[in-house]
Write a structure and sequence with these properties.
6-stranded parallel β-sheet; alpha/beta
């Protein structure tokens, strides 16, 4: 036996008003007497009616109330990265008071999967946020343009029709490079974030470097080289995870001509290099200096405290949310570039005397 659902018309009939008047009572605005509003709400309570369907109300307004967040990586990797989690936390804290929800859209697990998740072409969303990896010819952005969906690009290539939020990757990495150079290091290796959707792993030769397309990786690498570092090796990783940094560290530090310093494009990669150095019996920083980027709190790495470039993760998430608010109001916000800060820890020191 089915139970008939109470409708707004039932409430209106019980309160002795029209359906349009009952609707105004629930909207919280419009020309309706307070006594009439109270009578409608009392009838709704007696009938067990919770209110109009929110989806229907949103669709009548021409809005879904949803912000699509395109992660740029498989969720199983993204949620192991404190950077992604803290930025998302700052974003959702800003969107919640605006009455907006979030739809997480994963990136491909590897290059064999489509670059654009099917959700991107069909899911209801008012604004899309692409977390990172964007390039000027990114298929994700092309899909959003075809749909006419306003977009916020995080850590990507700035474009005139897309809101942009980022940090001073280049300047932060340049400052870190100068710190390592001032300590006397000349044999400096670097461990990078992915170059592109291929997510290759290993030393990158000149041909591979020429294929580098993801903006966040390019900016951090150019910050290093523009500050005067000519890396002895550029080691590309498929993801910003500790195990990827450890694999890179074992490869870079096992040979006889190992670098005396390793500069990494994330703290998780740097912490992996530190763990690899410990495995190999190397002291940090007496035998090898290691530095990262992000400014994460990693108590499990004790007694080491990473030298790192700290970025304002929660503030970046809030800035993304503010850009979403602007786009919903019909305004194209100015690009935001947030400052970063070098934090010297215990993992960098002078070049070893016998190097």
């Amino acid at each position: 036996m089915s139970v008939q659902r109470t409708t707004l018309a039932d409430v209106a009939a019980s309160a002795g008003v029209s359906v349009s008047t009952a609707s105004l009572a629930f909207s919280g605005s419009g020309p309706i007497a307070e006594a009439t509003r109270a009578r409608v709400l009392q009838a709704a309570q007696e009938l067990g009616y919770a209110g109009p369907n929110p989806l229907g109300r949103q669709l009548r307004r021409g809005r879904s109330g949803i912000v699509g967040v395109i992660m740029g990586d498989a969720l199983r990797r993204a949620f192991r990265d404190p950077v992604a989690v803290q930025v998302l936390d700052g974003l959702t804290a800003t969107l919640g008071p605006l009455g907006l929800g979030v739809l997480l859209i994963p990136g491909p697990d590897d290059a064999s999967q489509p670059a654009v998740d099917p959700l991107l072409s069909s899911a209801a969303m008012d604004v899309a946020v692409q977390m990172w990896g964007g390039t000027s010819d990114d298929p994700v952005l092309e899909m959003l343009r075809r749909r006419g969906t306003p977009a916020v690009l995080v850590e990507g290539t700035p474009q005139p029709d897309v809101a942009a939020v980022g940090i001073d990757d280049h300047g932060g990495m340049a400052e870190l490079a100068r710190h390592v150079l001032d300590l006397g290091h000349t044999r400096i290796g670097t461990v990078t974030l992915p170059f592109d959707r291929e997510r290759a792993e290993g030393p990158a030769d000149a041909g591979r470097l020429a294929q580098l397309s993801w903006e966040i990786t390019r900016r951090r690498l150019s910050g290093l080289t523009d500050a005067g570092v000519s890396p002895t090796v550029v080691y590309e990783t498929p993801a910003s995870l500790v195990e990827n940094g450890a694999a890179a560290g074992r490869a870079l530090l096992s040979g006889p001509d190992r670098p005396t310093a390793v500069v990494c494009q994330s703290d998780l990669l740097a912490s992996g290099v530190v763990l690899a150095a410990r495995e190999l019996g190397l002291r940090v920083p007496q035998d090898v200096s290691v530095a990262g980027f992000d400014g994460l709190d990693l108590p499990w790495l004790a007694p080491d405290v990473l030298t790192s470039v700290a970025q304002p993760l929660a503030e970046k998430g809030a800035a993304i949310g503010q850009a979403v608010e602007d786009l919903l109001a019909g305004r194209m916000p100015e690009p935001r570039v947030l400052p970063v800060q070098l934090r010297v820890g215990t993992t960098t020191g002078p070049v070893p005397p016998d190097a």
